[in-house]
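Example 3.2
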Amino acid sequence: MKVEKNEDTNIFPLDNKYFLYKNKKLGRGAFGEVYLGINKQTKNYIAIKIESLQNNENPQLKYEASVLKYLQGSLGIPQCYFSIKIKNYYFMIMDLLGPNLETLLNKMNRHFSLKTIIFLGIQMINIIESLHKRHVIHRDIKPDNFVIGLNKNDKKKLYLIDFGLSKRFRNPKTGEHIPYKDGKSLTGTVRYSSIYTHLGIEQSRRDDLEAMIYTLIYLFKGILPWQGLKAKNKNEKYHKILEKKMNVSIEKLCDELPFEFNKILIYVRSLQFEEIPDYNMIKGTLIGLLDEKFSIENIYYDWDIGKNFSNENNNKYSNDNKSDDDENIRNLKTNITQNNTPIQILPIIIK
């Protein structure tokens, strides 16, 4: 996205290339605030994440920047261009991306269609598999941490953000898995945390996948059964959420969704601590569901047409967009079936 002429001059230089708009705050991440900035050389808008180091006993942004730099080139991982410490602040410079899935869910009246859920699910499992191949688990999979592309060329693509809680689960040189531990405090967002995470067990690949399934169910229904529980304090609330997750049947949790979602959740919950997930089985299940329920035509996200509609064969979607989306879904299937190497991607975050 190019910077227009006569742009606001209320900017702060990070160096001779990157400048921050002090009066244009975009939002917050897990460990800092995000502002609009510009690359003076390319005249492109960028996002700049800032964390104050003053009275901060556990700064995270420098760590997040190092994780992003390590993951560059992996599927769905935004690009981190530059990071720097200036006085009592740490800055991370990133490409500007579009809204997150929580924001889009609110726009769509708290419900995504099944077609959108499947399309998102296929991309999510591809991104998480690519992340795990780099020996990293995210540990905070949720709608807020998936964003879509901002520009025409990547508006159908999904990106995973906020790596401040991520962790290496395996030594990349030796392949040795981290040891099983219990008694751990809960890391991540309790609404989407796996049952094992609630029980204090060290997280591994299975926990990212369980959180992914809860995310998809939430995006379809607009709510999860353990939301809104009354409690006197945080510990009691966490305990009640765990009880609800353990006691609600998978059939009830996935009702209104096809049986394939039951199958995936049953499988994910059965995984052992060090077990390698069968990503291809999960992808194949979702792709098979897509082929069974929907034709190749009219592939779109709900927000592409500005409304959430119940008629999956709505005729108001333009032929030009149909062609673009048909190509997107064909490319998506080709990448899955051929197991292509993840492509280089250039964007990053607004949260």
